[in-house]
């Protein structure tokens, strides 16, 4: 039964991702928004909702040490998954769809947008991780860091929305729900309200599908005897990052690489600011590096190293390939090995 729920939830998330990528592109076109605002803000925030609910519920409404551990693990696990596994999946999609892509295995992105995202992610994540090294009694300082992160994210969003929209060279596929607009279903440009309805339906599918998927993953993990650490750091983020991965695969297939990668890098900026602020405000003592949490915080370091390995070629040479993105998978497997070996030593 659990496997059936997993399959059905995955189908719902996939359907939501297809509706969302189509709808959010039309939303950006109707509002004459820049590509960075569409991919790095609207798409990233929309698909980051499922994984954000885990730490919020666990920390704000949960009780006990286990709930706090799950919340902190989810906060650290999301950027790690985005910087390793999501990049790898996107890279493999580039390689897999190379014959139908005009750019082949090369990733044609707006370098300015991606490097802008990475700079803001580096700043926000550095502040968040630095706060974990503060003494537990400096709760007011941690709260100040949380407020600063929120302000920085608002500034980041403002910068993207201030960008020029460009000439809209890419043709958009017809709105999926265009036939619901009576009298205008053959019109090439849908009305904004119908675009909004499609985006909301898509988000509903993504959130509901992710909720059932995570629940089924938790049930499966419990039946297999998998501990809360692996669940919070590895398994739950895989499930909750599905929308970003699927959105990026869809955009890669269509040759819209800036949207595909901006969806991930924008989500990384969001995850470095919003969920970490939740922990710093509601559970500041839990956001601390210790012997017990060292393995969890190690994921942050590996995520940063993975992102550097992937994007340094873009920084220096201005190019990046599907194989370069797939390098993130190496860091994911390496960290998974560390988690498993660490738990095995603890059990012994």
CATH architecture: Up-down Bundle
Total E-strand runs: 0
On the 0 to 100 scale, the average pLDDT is 85
In CATH's first tier, which class applies? Mainly Alpha
Gross geometry = globular
Cα gyration radius (Å)? 20 Å
Tag the structure with descriptive keywords.
mainly alpha, A middle domain of Talin 1, 348 residues, single chain, 12 helices
Topology:
Elements: H1 2-30, H2 35-61, H3 65-96, H4 111-131, H5 139-161, H6 192-223, H7 228-240, H8 242-253, H9 257-282, H10 294-317, H11 322-326, H12 328-347
Provide a descriptive summary of the structure in words.
With 348 residues, the chain is mainly α. The protein has one domain (2-166, 191-343): NCX, central ion-binding region (A middle domain of Talin 1), CATH 1.20.1420.30. It has 12 helices and no strands. It is globular, with a radius of gyration of 20 Å. The model has no long low-confidence stretch (mean pLDDT 85).
Can you describe this structure in just a few lines?
With 348 residues, this protein is an all-alpha fold. 76% of the residues lie in helices and 0% in strands.
